[in-house]
Amino acid sequence: MNIKLPAEIVNFVTDEGVASFPFLYPGQAQDSFKNKAYKLELVLERPAIDVDRDGFGVNPASPTQPLNPAYQPTNPLVRALVAVAQAYAPQGWFKYVFGTTGKLRLLEECPGRDRSKYSYAENKYVVSLSQVWSLATLKCEGLNLADPNDRQKYEALLAAKAPGVQRFYTGSPSDRAAMEAKNRELQMVGQPPIPEAEWAGKTVPVSAAEFKPGDWVRVAGRAYWKKSGSPSVGLAVQHVLMTRPGDALIAERSPDRAFEGFAPPASLAPPPAVAAPAAPVAPALAALFGRPQQ
User: Fold this and answer.
1) Is-contact 216 44, C-beta < 8 A?
2) CB-CB contact of 216 with 227 (8 Å)
3) What CATH number does the domain located at 9-169+203-249 have?
4) Most buried in the list 77, 148, 243, 265, measured by CB within 10 Å?
């Protein structure tokens, strides 16, 4: 069954949330069954989603149906999920949206999660999004991935699909260079360049070195029905906008810091190197540089 839903219903832009486990750049696609997938886990605050969850109401007698099925959600993410779930599973759609079996789960509702390792997500929604690519969707089914040349073509096609991360133009030298490069690309295809007065409203790429787990983002994506495996609602990530830096979720340590507990004691330290005596300066060179001959 393939149901066509309007793009304005299934497309969404999330509230601002914390990026966790991001795999969004070329070379970062993860194995997903026989495919490859760019992924992101988004940690969202409760209020905006709880409004709709409470609006539907939890039915103690039937977790698959809400108390108020006629309620109309206002959050774009919730609205997209509900539309897809209702279209494909009208008799039990609620379980695909909220709770332990749904797409919108609090950390406490995520099965198998050790809450002590995810303090940043305590009492918040944890939402998984992905962008899955196969040989078919990349339009390269004829490639033999055991062949080095075909493998190189496949990797290039996959890298070109990486969603990456964007931010609004800030005026920094790197952002200015990015906008100038974008204008050159536009001119090469016969389109007018973007006036500098309009740059502030445009997005520029954020390099992988600049982006880290813990930064704040908004995600533009699409809800769809997953037919493979266990039926469920999926969330496809299309674009990621970095809105502001956040606290790093993974503390980075230098090698010295990581192994400081295993360093040899000072008593075993090698003696300091003795400087070798200076070599004599040839008379011709001494005269040239105005140095006394040794």
Assistant:
1) no
2) no
3) 2.40.50.140
4) 77
Listed in order, strand segments (DSSP E) in the chain are: 11-13, 17-23, 30-32, 35-44, 105-106, 125-133, 165-168, 203-206, 216-226, 232-244
According to DSSP, the residues that pair with 224 across neighbouring strands are: 234
Cα dihedral sign, 9-13-19-25:
positive
| pTM reported for the whole predicted model | 0.82
